[in-house]
Design a protein that fits this description.
This protein is of the alpha+beta class. The chain is built from four helices and five strands, in the order βααββαββα. Strands 1-2-3-5-4 form a five-stranded antiparallel beta sheet.
Length: 143
């Protein structure tokens, strides 16, 4: 396998794009060798679902699209980035007991930590941001 593999998709900032992003990421990581029925693919799928949902819901119409970037470096680390053009960075919101939202970043952080990964946010030149998740690949392929 190559030292660096990359894939990317840009989608409209619309709720219908979330399942498209999940399918795209699942297909790509499966092509790269991650078993489609593995626990790690389920984790990646849920992380992408939460990140893309955030990109749709919390940009308040100010980001017409979002982009999902995947990078696999030397079969060691999978990086998933979701970029939107809204300037506000993710925040922990208090999640009321009867509230249906506000838990996305908590879920993302928890899944990332359980997988031995890390989360970061970087600004884009256009004033938006990319939320990055880095997960160890070698452990993922063994699951």
């Amino acid at each position: 396998m190559a030292d660096l593999q990359e894939a990317s998709i840009t989608l409209p900032s619309d709720p219908a794009s979330v399942p498209v992003a999940r399918r795209y990421v699942t297909d790509v990581v499966s092509e790269w060798g991650l078993p489609a029925d593995s626990e790690t693919v389920d984790t990646v799928r849920l992380i992408v679902s939460e990140l893309t949902t955030n990109a749709v819901q919390h940009t308040f119409g100010q980001s017409p699209t979002f982009t999902v970037d995947l990078t696999l470096e030397r079969d060691e680390e999978l990086r998933i980035g979701v970029t939107d053009s809204h300037p506000r960075w993710p925040q922990r919101l208090p999640a009321a007991v009867r509230q249906d939202n506000g838990r996305g970043m908590v879920i993302i952080r928890s899944l990332t930590a359980q997988s031995g990964g890390r989360l970061s946010v970087t600004p884009t030149a256009e004033g938006g941001k990319t939320v990055w998740i880095a997960l160890p690949w070698t452990a993922a392929v063994r699951n």
